[in-house]
Design brief:
The structure is a homodimer of 346-residue chains. Chain A has 346 residues and is of the alpha+beta class. Chain A folds into 3 domains: 2-99, Alpha-Beta Complex (Polyamine Oxidase, Chain A, domain 2); 120-185 and 301-345, FAD/NAD(P)-binding domain; 190-267, Alpha-Beta Plaits. Helix content of chain A is 36%, strand content 17%. Chain A contains 12 helices and 12 strands. Chain A has helices at 2-9, 33-36, 40-47, 53-67, 76-85, 90-99, 106-119, 162-165, 176-184, 244-258, 289-297, 318-336; strands spanning 131-136, 141-145, 150-153, 156-158, 169-171, 190-197, 206-208, 215-223, 230-237, 263-267, 303-305, 343-345. In chain A, the strands form 3 sheets. In chain A, strands 5-1-2-3-12 form a 5-stranded mixed β-sheet, with no helix packed on it. Chain A has a 5-stranded antiparallel β-sheet with strand order 7-8-9-6-10, sandwiched between helices. In chain A, helix 1 (2-9) packs across helix 4 and helix 9 crosses helix 11. The A-B interface holds A 87, 116, 119-121, 333, 337-338 and B 87, 116, 119-121, 333, 337-338.
């Protein structure tokens, strides 16, 4: 994978450093624009002659694990950003995107953020609530739920993900470019499936498969809490999954073809069918960032758009969500001052 | 410099990665303890035979620029931390510690932080005020200034730098280990001197000198705002400087011996004589971190200690100050809730 990645990103004789010197300012070097328009498939076609069969298959499986889509639909540019953000090395990509975990688990991390927000005394909330319309009168923004509850605020921060945004009606309507960006959407329809395999033999196992129906890449990711079994993380395709229970059986069966194992437990969530996400972490298709990134980041009157899906840095990661949340919070504090009570249920 | 640094830090055949895998958790690998006790001089002695004269001089000048002290007084461990934090490479050390600047300048950055704090409506402040005693009654902490003004709060966050802390009297007294740490202090007595050199010829110049009385390392750091002259940053020794005007003349004269130039302006601040700092950015002496770091970070009743001088990560940098400020803020919010009005002038 290392050799494949190195060839893939060496578009300037400097492993991408010259063409993308500052990954948090991705359009900084205007010469990168031509590369932004191409797909992973087009770039792979160019380096095919210098890779052997195994290198080529591993490379495509690794890219599929990142983008959750075909090489044709994956933008080369977003892969290059992962590479640049990770210090322009394959070891960096592994270290920066997969190595570290929060000791108490990701759910506890989310809960802590929520509890800290609650502790301010300034938070009212509702979960599992579909917002159907968002109206900006100029003085106040009104968000109306499907069940016709109304929320009013001086400013509204929309964290609606990219692939869901076009389903909410805005009034005044979103500007054409932002609307087009949300209709096109991002292309990550991948599946991330967690397996518990019997015993500890597979703790250092990695597997990759390409071409493949479901499973692109897997690896042992430590032992389960009891210390007896192995946690295996798998990345693959989620496309055309329909019945969660059957689908994960199919996925697990394909993993077993890669490596025989006894699977005791499967954990996954179908983010593609989840109406609040309609996709997994954001990966842009070819020819998208230069066209739409700025429009996605723009405010619309009193509505601010804050999502990891258009973060400049670690787009699609929790880090990107923090980046975007901070951006909106600072903007609103600058405009309205520090919060006393700025939102209320009507 | 690159070759010198690579040999200096290759204490495990992996450029330090094995012995210091997580620089933000610096004592993680207990095998690093022996290395923590030695000085830069002791480590240099070991690699001397494999370096040539220029490599050896450049290495020592570069270390002097980091630590602002002799090789004997500089802890090898803190140098290794800079190396590990910078991705275990000399290019990383340059990139992470010297390359990027805030476009509007560092003073504007500090002002923005201050103004944001002011905007909360919860800040009262005084500058140029010497605190002589800090007393914790259990219910309230009282800080008394030299001019006998008293400040009261439920919690007090002391950001008094390491080298100043022993001059403030605490009641109850600081625990023996914390007190010993503050009495020993850190060893950075360096000088950072900014020069404006006529013309743009020196914009890419770098110089190093060792042994040297005053000047260890210099480099061109962009052009001045008018775009005509060159900003040169110099790192060197501040020891025994007494008269600011004369001292910077002496410093500038030494730079001119390295490279002839017409100097139009000199800007520097004698942090060593400044009663609110008594040193520059924190660098630990040998045999200090394992002994004192934990004690420095500990609270003392209702007094929290928050300074870049005992940050775990970028110690001595603004990043370390943010790390420490966040730590104290989170602790206090957890204990007292979000601020209404927690401090007032008596």
């Amino acid at each position: 994978m290392q050799r494949g990645f190195e060839e893939l990103f060496n578009i300037d004789g400097q492993s991408g450093r010259a063409l993308m010197p500052y990954p948090h300012d991705p359009h900084h070097n205007p010469d990168i624009k031509g590369w932004e328009a191409i797909s992973a498939a087009e770039r792979i076609e160019k380096i095919k002659p210098i890779l052997n069969e195994v290198e080529l298959a591993t490379l495509q499986a690794s890219i599929g694990a990142i983008s959750g889509n075909t090489m044709e639909n994956t933008g080369f540019f977003d892969l290059l950003r992962w590479w640049a953000l990770s210090g322009y090395s394959a070891a960096g990509v592994f270290e920066f995107t997969e190595t570290y975990k929060i000791a108490t688990g990701q759910s506890s991390f989310a809960r802590m953020i929520f509890e800290e927000a609650l502790a301010t005394g300034n938070l009212r909330y509702t979960f599992d609530t579909v917002i159907s319309t968002v109206e900006d009168s100029g003085a106040l923004v009104k968000a109306t739920t499907l069940s016709n509850t109304k929320w009013l605020a001086k400013r509204l921060v929309s964290t609606i993900p990219l692939n869901v945004l076009s389903q909410v009606q805005f009034n005044p309507p979103l500007p054409p470019k932002k609307l087009a960006a949300t209709q096109k959407g991002h292309i990550n329809f991948g599946a991330k499936v967690h397996l518990e395999a019997e015993g500890s033999d597979l703790r250092s196992w990695s597997g990759a498969a390409w071409p493949s129906k479901r499973v692109f890449a897997c690896h042992g990711d430590g032992l389960t809490n009891a210390g007896k079994n192995t946690h295996i993380v798998c990345f693959g395709s989620n496309n055309e999954f329909a019945h969660p229970r059957e689908d994960c059986k199919e996925f697990a069966a394909e993993v077993k073809q890669l490596m025989p194992m006894q699977i005791n437990k499967v954990i996954w969530h179908n983010w593609l069918k989840d109406p609040f996400s309609l996709g997994t972490w954001c990966v842009f298709p070819p020819n998208y960032s230069f066209q739409y990134l700025e429009a996605l980041r723009e405010r619309h009157g009193n509505i601010l758009f804050s999502s990891a899906d258009w973060a400049l840095g670690w787009r699609g990661f929790i880090d990107g969500a923090i980046e975007e949340g901070s951006r909106a919070a600072k903007q609103i504090i600058d405009e309205l001052g520090f919060p006393k009570k700025i939102a209320g249920l009507l």
